[in-house]
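Entry 14. Structure prediction run on the chain below.
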Amino acid sequence: MAVVVGDVILGGKKIQVGAPVVTWEQHGMTWSKAPNVTPRQLDPDLIIWHWTGGENSPEGFFGNLNNRGLGITFYVTREIVDGYAVIYQYVDPCVWDPKDTGGGMGKRSISLEIASYGFLWPRGKTKTGRGSDREVVKGLRVHGVKYDVARFYPAQVRSVAALTKALCVELNIPMRFPREADGSLMRRVMENPEQRSFKGIIEHAHKTDKKVDCGYLLVEELEYLEVA
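Output returned:
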């Protein structure tokens, strides 16, 4: 499979990613003021993966966040080019800190949003329209509750892997996931001391029990792809 090469912008510098990228210089959608973004105060040492909870276009996703006074850096879309999902970049994360997730971890993180409805509630509902072709893992337990969780498209996994690795290499972020003492992948909310000290890659579900994205699925899929 041919790799489509694109560039993200970090600290004003173009960094090559092994996936297609469209930056704000090309698509024209960006934030440059509060509340959507504030100037970056802390160097990022953490990457947080999210799903969107919907199947929006990049334009629809931008508009939704804009109306809510929120922001994001990267959006891994549903659009596929040569086996890779197209990545949209809205701001330079070395210059701006989008209002995407709060607390101390949020201030030192870069968030990747991946287009996916995630799950339907109550369990047993059937998805229609966009996203209805996603594979569903039934009865996945997250924070003690069972969910029927939609997997990401393989093209999205490839693009998230490529983008995550490029960010980690360029910004010296450790390519590692939270693990228990026995080496197994962590499947719980990190304790406060763990959150303060951890540097690497987490899911939103590792940060708070109020969120289930990415349902621990993406960590396992990307571990298989040897991102870490």
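The domain at 6-117+156-224 is CATH 3.40.80.10 (Lysozyme-like).
Filed with the rest of this week's runs.
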